[in-house]
Amino acid sequence: MSEKKKYNLKNELTKGFLRENPVLRLVLGTCPTLATSTSVVNGVGMGIAATIVLICSNIAISALRKVIPSKARIPAYIVVIASFVTMVQMLVKAFVPALDESLGVFLPLIVVNCIILGRAEAFAGKSPVLVSAVDGLGMGIGFTAALFCMGTVREILGAGTFLSGIDAMIGCSFKGFDFTGGLAKIGLAPMTLFILPAGGFFVFGLLMAAANRLAEGKGLKKAGLSPCAGCPRADACANKLCGEEKDV
Amino acid sequence: MEEKQILTVSASPHVKSTATTRRIMLDVIIALIPAAFAGVTVFGLRAALVIAVCVLSSVMFEYLSRRLMKRDCTVGDLSAVVTGLLLAFNLPVSIPLWMCVVGAFAAIVVVKQFFGGLGQNFANPAITARIVLLVSFASAMTGFTSPVAGGVDAVSTATPLNILSSADGTSVAQLVANGELPSLLKMFLGVRAGCIGETCAAALLLGGVYLLARGVIKPAIPFSFIGTVAVISLFASRFDLTWTAYELLGGGLLLGAFFMATDYATSPVNTGGKIVFGVGCGILTAVIRLYGSLPEGVSYSILLMNIACPLIEKLTQPKYFGFIKSKKKKEGKAA
Questions:
Q1: Using a CB-CB distance cutoff of 8 angstroms, which residues of chain B are in contact with residue A187?
Q2: pLDDT (tens digit per residue) in B270-311
Q3: Domains: count for chain B
Q4: Structural domain count of chain A
């Protein structure tokens, strides 16, 4: 259909970083974001695993886009994605068992990660192979960056550590920073709330606000006035009453 | 044909109330003063310090956040003072002062100003801040000390509700005789372990009656809240009146029912809705106390009902004048 559309590779790569960041701007993949961003190492591990799956599935789906019948495309996409997830899971189990242990069920759940299915449906299914691969890479980097930001805030505020557990992940002797001892000396303690889901939502909301501000400055230009703009009851009826009254 | 005009025609409103936000908040502060005095008397001067830190940091955060968000300064409506007072009343006296500041930040900036300021908050700021602190610093928030009459050395102890929920089979009378549980009179006067402002039932009732008399709060929420807890406690204890009295006077029930569940922004407008709200709070409180792992559930119950408040409003919305259910419309649609 739109095969002749011109793609700007640089644009396709960078749109995932901030402007169309899958987590902070498109609000996709919220569940793995909240669940695995309790520490930086977990979040980045999840991000890298998802990025690999995303690039591979984007390439495969893009290459197969003329073969896959459009009515059965979702099952076909899922089969492709699931095979890549299985491969990644086996690789992680073999080479980074610590990551497999800490991510638990969220690693196989990449199959139903809506970022990956979303990119397959919205982009790879109708774009050439190279562009789709670049799109997958950009979106994957955006996802990993968002997880890194959330993990940093949540780990430092919630547990008082930074990059803890990195020794088990990449096999180095550096064990990450631990601020709890220093905090205790001046009578402070980390806020457990940020490790819990409620704190995850706080950080998520604030990061989304920050991303919106960075991407759009002070907001979109106001597009025309709504029909309720001049109505004195607009606040009371939340722009609904007029519609209901017409029905009555 | 000239007639003297005796009727003036003007746009509504024709009757104006003198009630302003500042006046209402001032009434709440006046109503809270007896409980503050009781807290300082029971727990010593550090209670006054905690109250001062909470109030000052709340007012400071209100000023700073309004300033940074380029909105009008609303420190003058005294709502931040009320929030600070209520927050302090919900903290144990031994809490580190920096946690009070964190609590004030959660209450004023996160719960209130992020959502647009007074009247726009979806939950009671003080209650939410208490829960944020309780979840974050569990040991500091439950490290209750026994009342010190002027003394400095604080002895950590369990609250009456803690003692009751962990006492299996021992009767209340026995616990009092053993000296584990304070007597009912002490419970009423507030000489027991607990948060700063929640212990003195006498002072809280005094403040509650003042608010009711001034018309600042309506009786529906406090009475249905306390009544529901009383009824469930009575049935759960097989009509043991003493046990029920301890359930009512212990914990933060009176403080929550009179001062926090009645928050205008987060409770229903109609009397019917208020009763639903109060009964819901009461059921949740009693269920958490009886079956939950926590000894106290007032704050969680109020927060949950705060969130349910828009639904209650929707269910109890009054029909406007002249409203007729249109039956024809449905038939028309079906056909």
A1: 96, 98
A2: 999 999 999 999 999 999 988 887 777 899 999 999 999 999
A3: 1
A4: 1
